[in-house]
Design a protein that fits this description.
With about 375 residues, the protein is α/β, with parallel strands linked by helices. Helices cover about 40% and strands about 10% of the residues. The protein starts with 15 loop residues before the first helix and ends with a helix. The model has no long low-confidence stretch (mean pLDDT about 95). The structure holds pyridoxal-5'-phosphate. The site of pyridoxal-5'-phosphate has 14 residues, from helix 3 and helix 4.
């Protein structure tokens, strides 16, 4: 069996409400940061239960600003996971600091709190950036215990809406950074958010997100604004547009409905693949709420001819969009050559990457799409059984 059309790996769930909201912004004549962004920030802060939400144009920008607000500087060490996207570690390099990688747990692929505890005994660490891979939360209680006084910035690019126990990710640490990139669970095309309860840090992030100029500079072309402003630091240009803010507001209103659809899809995948010996379904703690940004399937490379690579190619040939998350950072040329890493320096990350393949999971998928993915996976396993 074979789909006649390609099923994309990810698609945003945007419709008429998003179109209308964006059209209103364009008609209003105010396209950049303004009332829509402020309303999106207020709604987002309320949703996650944080005192402050600062909208920026990416999660990368959000993490950069959080590190800057903590005063991380050249030569500092920031502890993070190698099992993540480029953004998590590049922001550490932006400030001249160095990433201190710690390997992941083999089950969830989240950073291993025991290794974090060991690392902070051996090194002076300025901050810790855990990543909630796929939307399954890190063990934040164990991490906090290991971290002691070291501030934590959560990379929550996959973790909306994720709950640790009953608590939504968004106010569990000093900073939480979200992504609204095109493929994420809430999308504004490009966008990000910093949430924090820290007043001074929130102020600093806001100022540095807009050239380091004095507060409310975005108002300077409005009736209540003033032409005067002070530059207090060489800041960045990380503000979000009102076009994106309006999209974000609509998307936030349907976030839980979109999540519920992904839960259904994950349950169907689990039921179909849970008993297949060559496959391993994603680990999750039933006490938590998985956001299901990704469905990270793992294959048994020894039992499938050609292993993961052939399996991924075969799915593509059956018109199923797949992806692989992630090539561990220490295996990329920049980190390998700068820090002299070998793949075996973080053996769990290297091994699990070699057998990972992510399946499509997004709310616009129809039941027939889900059935096509399941049929294709089962056929590819059958065809490659060693
Ligand atoms: C997508 C992603 C980011 C970066 O998000 P942007 O909004 O594109 O900057 C950061 N971390 C992880 C784990 C991601 O998947």
């Amino acid at each position: 069996m074979m789909r006649t059309s390609f099923l994309p790996f990810a698609l945003p769930d945007t419709g008429d409400a998003e179109l209308a909201a964006v059209a209103d912004v364009i008609r209003s004549g105010w396209l950049t940061t303004g009332t829509q962004v402020r309303a999106f920030e207020a709604a987002f802060a309320k949703y996650v239960g944080a005192k402050h939400a600062i909208a920026v144009n990416s999660c990368t920008a959000a993490m950069h600003l959080a590190l800057e607000a903590l005063g991380v500087k050249a030569g500092d060490k920031v502890l993070t996971t190698p099992y993540t996207f480029a953004a998590t570690a590049e922001v550490i390099r932006y400030l001249g600091a160095d990433p201190l990688f710690v390997d992941v747990r083999p089950d969830t692929l989240n950073i291993d709190p025991e290794r974090v505890a060991d690392a902070v005994k051996k090194h002076e660490v300025a901050a810790i950036i855990p990543v909630h891979i796929a939307g399954e939360p890190c063990d934040m209680d164990a991490l906090r215990l290991a971290a002691g006084d070291i501030p934590i910035i959560e990379d929550a690019a996959h973790a909306l809406p994720t709950r640790l126990g009953g608590r939504l990710v968004g106010n569990l640490s000093r900073f939480t950074c979200f992504s609204f990139y095109a493929t994420k669970t809430l999308s504004t095309g490009e966008g990000g958010m910093i949430t924090t309860d820290d007043d001074a840090a929130a102020d600093r992030c806001r100022i540095m997100s807009l050239h380091g100029i004095s507060r409310d500079a975005w108002k300077r072309y409005t009736a209540e604004g003033s032409w005067a402003y002070d530059i207090i630091a060489p800041g960045y240009k990380y503000n979000l547009t009102d076009i994106a803010g309006a999209l974000g507001l609509v998307q936030l209103g349907k976030l839980e409905a979109m999540w519920r659809r992904r839960v259904e899809i994950a349950a169907r995948y689990d039921a179909a693949f849970g008993s297949i010996e060559e496959l391993q379904i994603p680990a999750r703690n039933p006490a938590n709420q998985h956001a299901w940004h990704l469905y990270m399937l793992r294959v048994d490379n020894a039992r499938l001819r050609g292993g993961r690579d052939a399996f991924a190619d075969a799915l593509r040939r059956k018109n199923i969009g797949i992806s692989v998350h992630f090539i561990p950072l220490h295996m990329h040329p920049y980190y390998r050559d700068t820090y002299g890493y070998r793949p075996e320096d973080f053996p769990i990350a290297a091994r699990e990457f070699s057998r990972e393949v992510s399946l499509p999971i997004y709310s616009r998928m129809s039941d027939a799409d889900v059935a096509d993915v399941i049929a294709a996976v089962l056929e590819c396993v059958d065809a490659a059984r060693a």
